[in-house]
Amino acid sequence: MDIKQIQELIKFVSRSGVNEVAIEQKDFKITIKTNQTPTVVHATVPAPVATSAVPAAAAPLPVSPTETKAPAAAAEDTSNYITIKSPMIGTFYRSAGPDKPSFVNVGDEVSTGKVICIIEAMKLFNEIESEVSGRIVKVLVDNASPVEYDQPLFLVEPI
Fold first, then answer.
1. Do both 53 and 72 map to the same domain?
2. What total number of domains does the chain contain?
3. DSSP, res 130
4. Staple 147 to which of 33, 53, 86, 129, CB 3.0 to 4.6 Å?
5. Are residues 54 and 12 located together in one domain of the fold?
6. Same-domain status, 80 and 51
7. What's the pLDDT band for 35 if we cut at 50, 70, 90?
């Protein structure tokens, strides 16, 4: 299973309302769980493979409530802005390298298809392109920090 198939599966799970999907192949196993019922994470611990996945799943949970509160407060004040969200789980980078300039900064205008950041997932660096045109109002994530699927990354004022 390649990264595109995994991304499509994540999108499908988020739209379908299913709480959990598990796929097993010869040398590959993936489990996707929504945040709607976090207690399910603890219920699936007995499986040996799930046990190794629980620390990875448990680590982002303390970050998630903190991250959720900031965008929620921003959404109340900025209801006319468009939110660009993360299409995958990974590590967020604002530039192509430590010595390179950021793809976008607050005040920059972006158009559909322009690269706005990179998300590293499974040692692959995925360029994330803007799906909207507008002006960057706020960057909601710190550079080199972990992001969750569908986590708000940028606020954009449409033009």
1. no
2. 2
3. P
4. 86
5. yes
6. no
7. low
Question: Smallest Cα–Cα separation from 140: which of 151, 131, 148, 129?
Answer: 151
Q: Say if CB 101 and CB 95 are below 8 A apart.
A: yes
pLDDT tens column, 130-155: 999 999 999 999 999 999 999 999 99
Q: From CA 149, how far away is CA 90, in angstroms rounded?
A: 8
Does the pLDDT of residue 109 top 60, yes or no?
Answer: yes
The tokens for 77 are 């004040």
Tell me: do 51 and 118 sit in the same domain.
no
DSSP strand E in the chain: where?
20-25, 28-33, 82-85, 90-93, 109-110, 115-121, 124-129, 134-139, 145-147, 152-158
The model's pLDDT over 92-107, given as tens digits with 9 standing for 90+, comes to 999 999 999 999 999 9
User: Are 81 and 141 members of one domain?
Assistant: yes
CA distance 140 to 117: 12
| One domain for residues 75 and 151 | yes
Does this model's pTM top 0.70? no
Q: How far apart are CA 76 and CA 111, in angstroms?
A: 25
Q: Are residues 130 and 72 in the same domain?
A: yes
Print the domain residue range for 51. Answer: 3-58
| Exposure on the CB side of residue 63, measured as CA atoms within 13 A | 14
Per residue in 37-63, pLDDT tens? 443 333 333 444 444 444 444 444 444
